[in-house]
Amino acid sequence: MEGKIIVVTSGKGGVGKTTATASIGAALALEGNRVAVIDMDIGLRNLDVVLGLENRIVFNIVDVVNKRCKLTQAAIRDRRIENLFLIPASQSDNKDVLTTAGVERAAKILKKEFDYILMDSPAGIEKGFENSIVSASEAIVICTPDVSSVRDADRVIGLLYARSITPKIIVNRIVPQMVAKGDMLSHEDVMEVLSVELAGLVPMDEQVVIATNMGMPLVMQNNSKAGQAFRRIAKRLNGETDLPIQVPTHKTGMWNKLSQKLGFKK
Questions:
Q1: CA-to-CA distance for 75 and 63, rounded, in angstroms?
Q2: In this predicted model, what pLDDT tens digit does every residue of 220-258 receive, in sequence order?
Q3: Domains in the chain, number
Q4: CA-to-CA distance for 123 and 135, rounded, in angstroms?
Q5: What average pLDDT does this structure show over 19-25?
Q6: Residue 46 and residue 31: Cα distance in Å, rounded?
Q7: Which CATH number does the domain housing residue 142 bear?
Q8: What percent of the chain has a predicted confidence (pLDDT) above 70?
Q9: CA 220, CA 202: separation in Å to the nearest integer?
Q10: 52 has a pLDDT exceeding 70
């Protein structure tokens, strides 16, 4: 059976797309799958840093597509998670160096070698986006619960549907306290606008910064709420469709609950 190519994309930058790619890829590998995560952001690679593999790069996706090396030479195996591989982007080339035909040729090889291939697409809808989706069978759109991110995600979703790719949404960086106060969009608000399948909800988590600085996949941080959310997302992608989506909540302490009942101010 051929592997599945999933593009991870967003309408705008800074919504946590690369962290999501690394986390979902690592979680799928922890489930026993052979997984490749590929950085398609030519010239601005970051996936290698998130995974802590930046010092082991020799070849990159441009070398693979342009046949300057074999796939096995470019794929960097993670020493902590069995069956997780990174194919980094090039930092020295420009975004026009890849063609959709070349990416399609490489994709055929990738699907024979891996169970899941996650394409970390550059933000936006330019050529890098086109190259990332050309061979994808599924798409995950990352958005945050703010109006500009949702609007940009809506545009990307339209482009994916136009190419017969059915997208799913991950709402990232949810702050339950802000949602409760009405200062942040709820996931229901987001889904009402976007009207696509929900893949998962991920809370804001300071462990994301810590894990990135350490170069450790977030899903390996046992005390990370975001990491736990990404592991559940990966399980659903891997076939556990009956696994419910957990809504991030703000757990109120006993004194706060009592204070609210008695009418005291916080």
A1: 11
A2: 998 999 999 999 999 999 999 899 999 998 765 554 555
A3: 1
A4: 18
A5: 97
A6: 24
A7: 3.40.50.300
A8: 94
A9: 16
A10: yes
Token pair 């989706």 in the structure block, residue: 133
Query: What's the pTM?
Result: 0.91
> Distance of CA 1 to CAs 110, 125, 235, Å?
12, 31, 19
For residue 110, give its domain range.
4-262
What's the whole-number average pLDDT of the chain? 91
- State whether residue 141 is helix, strand or coil: strand
In this model, does residue 127 exceed pLDDT 90?
A: no
- Identity of the amino acid at 120: D
| 124 neighbors 11 (Cβ within 8 angstroms) | yes
Query: Considering only CA atoms, which of 134, 130, 45, 128 is closest in space to residue 89?
Result: 45
Assigned token pair, 58: 């020799």
Q: Which residues on neighbouring strands pair with residue 8, listed in sequence order?
A: 120, 140
Kindly tell me if the per-residue pLDDT of 35 is higher than 60: yes
| Sign of the four-CA dihedral 155, 156, 159, 161 | negative
pLDDT of residue 94: 81
7 vs 233: CA distance, rounded Å? 15
CA distance 210 to 81: 19
Backbone angles phi, psi at 198, to 5 degrees: -90, 125
